[in-house]
Amino acid sequence: MLGHRRPRDPYTAHTDLLSWKKYWIPFVAFMGTKLWLPDATAGCGQSCLRREVFLLCAFFMWVHQHMKPRSRQNTQARPSSAMNVVGSMRRTQGRAGITLVSSKLLGLALKGMERRYVEVHGPDALKPERKNPYSKADIEALRALSYGFNVGGRIFDWEAAYFVAWEAAFALTRFEGLRKAEVT
């Protein structure tokens, strides 16, 4: 197929298609516009380009309004999550050989929505929610384990090479600030 680009990762194409179905198709039905946007390089006039920029910004705000937050603790999805959906739609259009307009206005909309999100949800609202690294108390609690019980089919003994390496790994994670997800 002419103009068809294969994604680097097939999973990306799959998730892009899911976003397309979940957000883009309902949005164009709501707006009463075409599913496929005109190619920006095909000589579309200024009014056409302005319309496409408006549609991208409206789509971004519409997605943010309709998107469910990632966790139950949050009452609203992050603006960057909605921007990811816009990027997904752009990639899908790009795979069909359509070049969309470049929009600085979309970046400004993201900054404005992030500012508003912080005003409503607090200064730490956009910080990623990660587990903390192991603390000194965690390492000391490990050191306080008694000898002789079964740990994954091995008899616990701090003198055994396996558990010396285990202790070193935990100490390294503490001093380097690594989290469990970064080690495993």
Write the layout of secondary structure elements.
Blueprint (H helix, E strand, L loop, with lengths): L9 H22 L14 H21 L12 H17 L8 H18 L14 H8 L6 E2 L2 E2 L5 H16 L3 H4 L1
Give a quick precis of the structure.
The chain has 184 residues and is mainly α. Helix content is 58%, strand content 2%.
Distance between the termini: 42 Å
Strand content: under 5%
Q: In this structure, how is the largest beta sheet organized?
A: 2 strands, antiparallel
Instruction: Tell me the overall shape.
Output: elongated
How many domains, as an integer?
2
Number of strands: 2
Helix content: 55-70%
SSE series: HHHHHEEHH
Note the total helix count: 7
Structural class: mainly alpha
- Gyration radius (Cα, Å) is 25 Å
The main sheet orders its strands as 1-2
Mean pLDDT over the residues: 82
Unreliable spans: none
Describe this structure in words.
By secondary structure, the protein is mainly alpha-helical. The protein has 2 domains: 112 residues, no CATH class; 48 residues, no CATH class. The protein contains 7 helices and 2 strands, in the order αααααββαα. The protein has a two-stranded antiparallel ribbon. The chain is elongated and about 75 Å long. The two termini are 42 Å apart. 11% of the residues are buried. The model has no long low-confidence stretch (mean pLDDT 82).
Keywords for this structure?
58% helix, two-stranded antiparallel ribbon, 2 domains, elongated
